[in-house]
Specification:
Elements lengths: L1 H4 L2 E6 L4 H13 L4 E5 L10 H7 L3 H5 L2 E3 L2 H5 L4 E5 L10 E3 H14 L5 E5 L8 H5 L3 E4 L11 H17 L16 E3 L5 E3 L11 H17 L11 H11 L4 H18 L7
Parallel strand pairs: 1-2, 1-6, 2-3, 4-6, 4-7, 5-7
Antiparallel strand pairs: 8-9
Helix pairs in contact: 2-3, 2-8, 6-8, 9-11
Length: 276
């Protein structure tokens, strides 16, 4: 079961209180998880802050090993599914589920896909996640709390999420543990300079968020080239595209195919395609 637990990442976006970071490390360790990622924390050396160390209370190893990255895109790069935790309704965004449904979906995802990795994304203590943050995730997730007072401390919310994930992962067939270690998989490079597993089913493997983000940038460039998208007046086209492709759980082959389409669109716009 340790293998599956290691494929769940808890992401705190711009945490402002070191104590909450320490409490988060303690929360996930008590549930058997170890991957804590901090996006652009407000305090430098937050993992060494006295308040963080004090509230970690025995989870100093998780705190010390926390991954620090400059933006959410970097935190999500190795993942294949991400849940944005928010209590606020959004007019535009990915499909919505509660935390228990998210845990069940996560369990199914990592047990079905050997390359699958899941992220639980929590926002700042003051304002939560922005629409831009949510657009990078595949699902919106909420905790069914008292509607008259649904505010939860970010570390408390993370504790509840970790518990639901532990419960879901602990109640699945043990056969799911028989997953090859990534260290035993050979990797190859595709035409775009990106790497992915070289085993026979690599094309059917889910694409990482980094690979999908690269495709989305290419797709946006192609739409601009064919004058379908006006970058000066994008309206809501780009986030809608993000949600569309995010829902579809694209594989490596599908991403490569769409990158080929993008390349052809750009060439056609520039008159570089050969006529038969």
């Amino acid at each position: 079961m340790t293998i599956l637990f290691s494929r769940i990442r808890f992401i705190m976006v711009q945490p402002s209180h070191p104590g909450n970071v320490g409490a988060a490390a303690r929360a996930i360790k008590t549930m058997g998880f170890t991957d804590l990622c901090l996006v652009n924390p407000e305090h430098d050396n937050v993992t060494r802050h006295p308040d963080a160390i004090a509230l970690a209370s025995g989870a100093g190893d998780v705190l010390e090993q926390a991954c620090l990255v400059p933006n959410l895109e970097a935190a999500l790069a190795p993942l294949t599914m991400a849940f944005a935790m928010t209590a606020r309704e959004r007019v535009l965004g990915p499909p919505v589920c509660d935390i228990r449904e998210a845990a069940i979906l996560s369990q199914s995802h990592v047990s079905t896909h050997p390359e699958g990795r899941v992220g639980i994304v929590l926002g700042t203590e003051r304002s939560g996640l922005t629409n831009e943050h949510i657009a990078q995730c595949q699902r919106i997730c909420h905790i069914p709390a008292n509607p008259a007072y649904s505010s939860l401390n970010v570390a408390q919310a993370l504790q509840l999420a970790a518990w639901e994930l532990r419960y879901a992962l602990s109640n699945m067939p043990c056969a799911a543990e028989k997953i090859d270690s990534p260290a035993r998989i050979n990797y190859v490079q595709n035409d775009h300079g990106e790497t992915h597993p070289a085993d026979p089913e690599a094309g059917d493997a889910l694409a990482s968020q980094a690979k999908i983000n690269a495709f989305l940038k290419h797709w946006q460039e192609a739409l601009i080239q064919i004058q379908f998208l006006n970058p000066a007046y994008p309206k809501k086209l780009i986030p809608r595209m993000h949600h569309l492709f995010g829902r579809n759980q694209m594989t490596n082959d599908e991403v490569d195919m769409m990158r080929g389409v993008c390349t052809a669109m750009v060439k056609a716009a520039n008159g570089q395609l050969r006529k038969n």
